[in-house]
Amino acid sequence: MLKKFFLTTSSGILCSRIAGFVRDLLSASILGSGLYSDIFFVAFKFPNLFRRIFAEGAFTQSFLPAFIASKHKGAFSVSVLVIFSALLVLFSLLVGFYAPFFTKLLAYGFDAHTITLAQNIVAINFYYLLLVFLATFFGALLQYKNHFFVSAYQTILLNLGMIVALLLGKDKDLLEVVYYLSYGVLIGGIGQVVVHFYPLYMLGFDKLFRVGIKQVYLCFKSPSQERKKATLKGELKGFFKQFFPSVLGNSASQISSFIDTLLASFLATGSISYLYYANRIFQLPLALFAIAISTALFPTIAKAIKNAQQDIAIQHLQQALYFLTTMLLLCTLGGVLLSEFIISLLFKRGQFGAADVIQSAAVFRMYLVGLLPFGLAKIFSLWLYAHHQQLKAAKISLYSLIFGTICSLSLMPYLQASGLALSSSLAGFLLCFLNIKAFGFKRFLGMITLRSLLKLASFLALETLALLLFLWCLGAWHTQHALQRLF
Asked: How many structural domains compose the chain?
């Protein structure tokens, strides 16, 4: 069952990322890596950050345990839905009314003219926050019934909305293309929400919502329901007490990327785009392996801990450790050796030239330094969440963020955008170290065997030889074609 959930989640992420790469390919070709691409990426950065944090478990890891334990599931779920929806609508309206201020906040290095161009784009993209929440909320309810398919695949609709928008606007003025792209985000978000309706109906959640609305109404209108009202308030208080630390604990790499974008606005034009494209590729193996396996593994780990079956939980973590270490080291090695080839293959066309490839590849290599630490931190943080230590996980993430920000401010003047990416990776190492420390060094060392290390080393040596052979063949092919052009 665990393998089935992992494969469903992983395949959904893969399909979504393929659609995302098609979107980025079109974006790089049409917008390039200049002023207008920077404007869109700044406008989309916070909504996309919000989406990634929610999608990677911050909401589900808090909501599902509270929902399962709730005595009035209908009232609890409706209350959470209404509270979040109201807050996000108000926040989006606030951003719309004070768009110049929030735009300056997101990209402090932008000049007055760029702020004027970007403010409406920022306001439009912020309405995506509500759609992200609704999709995540409905997805969490489906996961309660062990229905993972829609949650895994719904992000494809966001990418499809943006792809269609780019195709429709490709012959327009570049600023107009950015508007098309922003409305494509909203249309894709609506699709992400709507796709949940049918499975929710088939699994009977429409009845839950009807009962919940009635329960909430009676709680606040009938004096005889004071005990039920007090119970509901206690459940909501407990949920939010776990939710906010969970958000911070799950969002270290995403917030680090957000800070990178803010600081990159002080660098040369195009720096934000280099960070964006490099981070997009970096996030693929992280999502495909680390996020997918942690999503599938968390219910099993939590259940084992609850039933005092610690050995079973450690056994599952050990398997995840070996799998992730192998796959993420493979991705790191391959990515470093083939960085320029990968960037060129994916993005070098239209407005995205050879200089952009070199800059993006350098940033990509710096991000890859932290791939394994971020992945391992993801699975070992499950131990804390399963023990209801969300606050401790949040503190660990906060220490990592502070360290990463200090590194960014120190390295940015010397290494430019690459320095920001390297700082993010260094923060990942600290995040991994602190999560393993919380898990216990003795437990961690007990999971490592000499046989497994030898197998891993042999596997990596073979992969290195294969990659070097590929690079040699690639170089020979380029040399041959260069000679043919000369003679």
From this structure: 1
What is the mean pLDDT for each group of 10 consecutive residues in the chain (487 residues)?
Answer: 72 84 83 81 80 71 78 87 93 90 81 85 91 90 81 87 91 88 94 93 88 79 68 84 77 71 84 86 88 80 79 87 88 89 83 86 94 92 82 88 93 92 92 93 84 73 73 60 46
Residue 68 lies in a domain: yes
Alpha-carbon 2 to chain mean position: 22
Residue 214 lies in a domain: yes
Calculate ∠ Cα 285-427-45, nearest 5°: 65
CB-based contacts of 181: which residues, under 8 Å, 6+ apart?
Answer: 27, 40, 162, 165, 166, 169
* Cα Rg of the chain (Å, integer): 23
Instruction: Report pTM.
Output: 0.74
Q: Is 352 helix (H, G, I), strand (E, B) or coil?
A: strand
Q: Under a CB-based contact definition with an 8 Å cutoff, are residues 286 and 320 in contact?
A: no
Nearest to 340 by CA among 326, 327, 357: 357
CA 369 to chain centre: 18
In a domain, 76, yes or no: yes
The answer to whether residue 273 sits within a structural domain is yes
